[in-house]
Amino acid sequence: MKIVIADRDEIDSYSSFADEFVSLIFDVEAALVTDLSDLTDFCHGAGDLENAYGKIEAAYGIDARGTNNLVEIFRLIEARKNQKLH
């Protein structure tokens, strides 16, 4: 059986805070995160998912409930950071 890992092209552009995000939101030191990684890859059930949304909102000031894809969430975080600068 051949194992294929999804691309990391987009996720790598957020490497400056991707590791911090994983640690803060999921309480893990490290994880393989790819362009297809999703909150549900790390959350077990609706309670965990809702907890993750709460942590994201508290830490980054965004409501991520519209998506579970980490690349899309990172885009929202980056947009929020850029908005604060202007």
Structural class assignment: mainly alpha
The helix content is 40-55%
Number of strands: 0
Low-pLDDT residue intervals, each spanning 5 or more residues:
none
Give me the number of helical elements: 4
Main beta sheet: strand number and arrangement?
none
Shape descriptor reads globular
**Assigned CATH class:** Mainly Alpha
Which CATH architecture?
A: Orthogonal Bundle
> What is the CA–CA distance across the termini?
50 Å
| Percent in strands | under 5%
Quaternary structure classification: single chain
What does this structure look like?
The model has no long low-confidence stretch (mean pLDDT 93). 55% of the residues lie in helices and 0% in strands. It starts with 8 loop residues before the first helix and ends with a helix. By secondary structure, the chain is an all-alpha fold. It has a single domain (9-85), classed as Non-ribosomal Peptide Synthetase Peptidyl Carrier Protein, Chain A, CATH 1.10.1200. The chain is built from 4 helices and no strands. It has helices at 9-12, 15-26, 46-60, 70-85. The longest helix has 16 residues, at 70-85.
